[in-house]
From TrEMBL:
Residues 12-365 form the AMP-dependent synthetase/ligase domain. One of its GO terms (molecular function) is medium-chain fatty acid-CoA ligase activity. Pfam families: AMP-binding. This is AMP-dependent synthetase/ligase domain-containing protein. GO terms for biological process: fatty acid metabolic process. Keywords: Ligase. Belongs to the ATP-dependent AMP-binding enzyme family. It comes from [Pantoea] beijingensis. The keyword Ligase applies.
Length: 520
C-alpha cells in the first residue's frame, strides 16, 4: 500500500467536498488532488527523482500533507528532524551534513531558510516550496492528473529523528507500508468516517500528525487545522468547526480542559477523544469525561511502531479500568504480537514488553554508514509491564528510568508520577534521580509544579506522603520532593524535557518524603 493511494483523484462528487479547513482558506478534495499533481510536477522539474533522499523542513499545515503524498507518488525517502523550531537551525544543518541528502525541501513560511543556507555545506540543494498549495503557475490547468511513478511502497520511506524524553536522538526508519497500515488501523479504531470533522492537533513530524491527516483522506473526511498552538483556545475552535474527532497528550488535554472550563464552549459535537503518550491523572480524566461526554480511547504505541497498538476503549473507561491499575493501556490489537521478556525472576510477573510482527519499523537509521540496522526477531521496547488476568497490558515504567532504591527495590517513575499527579494543586510531575554524595548511587526525587508549590515545605511534604501512602508501599516512594516555581520545559510535541528539569533542581530546596505517623 502507498500513501498516495489512500485517496484517489477526485471524481465529480468528491471533487467539491471539503477536504481541509485551514485558518486561511478551505480546500476541496479536487484542490488537494490538483495540489499533489502540481507538486509532483514541480519537484520533478527541480530535479527530484525516484529513489532519492530528501531532508524535509515542514510547516505543520496542508503543504506538508501534500508534499508527503507527492513524495509517495515519486518514490523518494523523507528525513525529518525532531526539533522544528527556528532555534534548531544548527541541528538541521548537522543532520543535513550527516545525511548528505540529494535535496533539502523547505516548506516553512519564514526567513529562516536564509540562515540555513549560510550554515549548510556549499552546494546543498535547497528547494523552497513555501506556498504552492492552490497557488500554481500559469500552466496549472494542464497539470490535473496525479502521476504515480513508483507503484511499489518505498522501503525506508520516512526517517524520523526523535529525541523522546531523554534527549538522546534516535533515527527511526519507517517503511511506507507500515505508515499506511498504521493510518488504516488507528483511523478504524477511532471510528473515522466520511462525515467526520477531524482536528489536526498533531504535528507533521510525528505519528499523530501523519496518521490523522492521511486517516482523514482515507475516510473521505474533513481535516481541520487549528488556528495556533494555544490549547486553551482550541475548545472554541472545536465548537466553531463542529469537530468530531481529536487526540491530545496529557499536558495538552489539561490545558484544553482549563480552556473549556473558562470559555464554556459547547463540545457536544465531539464523538471520539483519544489520548496517549503518558499516564493521565485520574481526576483529570474524570473531569474531562464529564466535560466531553463522548467515546474515549487511550492508545499506547512507540515511534518504532509508528503509532498505537494497544487500546483502552470506551467500554474499558465505563468499567473504570483506569482505576484498577495505575497505568493500564488496554489490550493489544492485531497489528503486533505483544509478550514479556523476563530477566529477573525475583520481580514476579513484571518483564520487558517485547514486540514481534510486521507492525514494526524497518530499523534504526545509522547516519555514519547510511544503513538501516534491522530489528531482530523481537523488538525490546524498554518498557516494564505485566498482563492482567483479562489480558490488559499494565505498564510499570521505562527500564532506563527505573531507579533502584537503597534497599534494592525498583522504583518506577510512571507509577510515582501517576499517584502524585492526583494531588490537588499539582499540575505537572516528574520523577528523576540525582547523584548522591560521593556519587555512591542515585536519589529518587519527585519534581512537581502547580499551586501546591506555593505552600510551606511541611504542607507539601505531607500532601505528597499522604497521597503516596494510599497506593504505593513505602519502598516504592521517592526520597525527596522538589517544588518547582516554574512550569517544566517542554518540546514542540508537548513532552517534558527531563534533562532541562534535572538541571534546574536546587538540592537545597529538597523536601524529605517520610511515612506519616498514625496519630489516631
Amino acid at each position: 500500500m502507498k500513501l498516495i493511494w489512500l485517496f484517489q483523484n477526485a471524481d465529480d462528487v468528491m471533487s467539491n467536498k471539503t477536504a481541509f479547513v485551514t485558518p486561511n482558506r478551505t480546500y476541496t478534495y479536487g484542490d488537494i488532488c490538483k495540489a499533489v499533481a502540481h507538486t509532483i510536477h514541480n519537484l520533478r522539474h527541480l530535479g527530484v527523482r525516484r529513489g532519492q533522499q530528501v531532508v524535509l523542513i515542514p510547516e505543520h499545515d496542508e503543504s506538508a500533507v501534500v508534499f508527503m503524498a507527492a513524495a509517495s507518488a515519486i518514490g523518494i525517502q523523507i528525513v525529518m528532524p525532531y526539533n522544528l523550531q527556528n532555534a534548531a537551525i544548527l541541528e538541521w544543518a548537522n543532520i543535513i551534513q550527516a545525511v548528505n541528502p540529494d535535496h533539502v525541501v523547505y516548506l516553512r513560511r519564514d526567513k529562516a531558510v536564509e540562515e540555513l543556507q549560510q550554515v549548510v555545506v556549499e552546494g546543498t540543494h535547497i528547494i523552497e516550496l513555501s506556498a504552492f498549495v492552490g497557488h500554481g503557475g500559469e500552466n496549472d490547468e494542464d497539470i490535473i492528473d496525479i502521476v504515480v511513478e513508483s507503484p511499489d511502497p518505498v522501503e525506508n520511506f520516512l526517517v524520523l529523528f526523535t529525541s523522546g524524553t531523554t534527549g538522546k536522538a534516535k533515527a527511526v526508519s519507517i517503511s511506507e507500508s507500515l505508515v499506511c497500515k498504521r493510518v488504516a488501523s488507528v483511523s478504524r479504531q477511532l471510528k473515522f468516517s466520511a462525515d467526520a470533522r477531524i482536528f489536526m492537533s498533531g504535528l507533521m513530524n510525528n505519528t499523530t500528525g501523519v496518521i490523522f491527516s492521511f486517516g482523514a483522506l482515507l475516510h473521505d473526511a474533513t481535516l481541520v487545522f487549528p488556528h495556533g498552538r494555544v490549547m486553551e483556545q482550541w475548545p472554541q475552535q472545536v465548537e466553531h468547526h463542529q469537530i468530531t474527532h481529536m487526540m491530545l497528550r496529557p499536558v495538552a488535554l489539561r490545558r484544553f480542559v482549563e480552556g473549556a472550563r473558562e470559555c464554556g464552549a459547547d463540545l457536544s459535537s465531539l464523538r471520539v477523544m483519544a489520548y496517549g503518550a503518558a499516564a493521565l491523572p485520574k481526576k483529570l480524566l474524570e473531569e474531562a469525561r464529564v466535560l466531553i461526554p463522548c467515546e474515549w480511547a487511550q492508545g499506547y504505541g512507540l515511534s518504532e511502531t509508528f503509532g498505537p497498538f494497544c487500546w483502552l476503549t470506551e467500554d474499558d473507561h465505563q468499567r473504570k479500568l483506569y482505576e484498577q491499575y495505575i497505568y493500564c493501556v488496554g489490550r493489544p490489537d492485531d497489528s503486533l504480537d505483544v509478550s514479556l521478556h523476563f530477566s529477573d525472576a525475583a520481580q514476579n510477573s513484571v518483564g520487558e514488553v517485547v514486540l514481534r510482527g510486521t507492525g514494526l519499523m524497518a530499523g534504526y537509521f545509522d547516519i555514519a554508514s547510511d544503513q538501516v540496522q534491522p530489528v531482530g526477531e523481537y523488538f525490546h521496547t524498554g518498557d516494564y509491564g505485566h498482563f492482567s488476568n483479562n489480558g490488559e497490558l499494565i505498564l510499570k515504567g521505562r527500564i532506563s528510568n527505573t531507579i533502584l532504591s537503597k534497599n534494592g527495590h525498583r522504583i518506577y517513575p510512571e507509577e510515582v508520577e501517576s499517584v502524585v499527579a492526583e494531588i490537588v494543586g499539582v499540575k505537572e510531575v516528574l520523577l528523576l534521580s540525582i547523584p548522591t554524595a560521593n556519587n555512591l548511587g542515585n536519589t529518587p526525587v519527585v519534581c512537581i509544579y502547580g499551586p501546591l508549590t506555593q505552600e510551606s515545605d511541611e504542607v507539601i511534604g505531607r500532601a505528597v506522603s499522604t497521597q503516596l501512602a494510599i497506593q504505593l508501599s513505602e519502598e516504592k516512594w521517592p526520597d525527596y520532593v522538589f517544588p518547582s516555581r516554574f512550569p517544566f520545559p517542554k518540546s514542540s510535541n508537548d513532552k517534558i524535557i527531563k534533562g532541562e528539569v534535572l538541571k534546574g533542581i536546587d538540592t537545597t530546596a529538597l523536601i524529605p518524603v517520610s511515612v506519616m505517623e498514625d496519630t489516631a
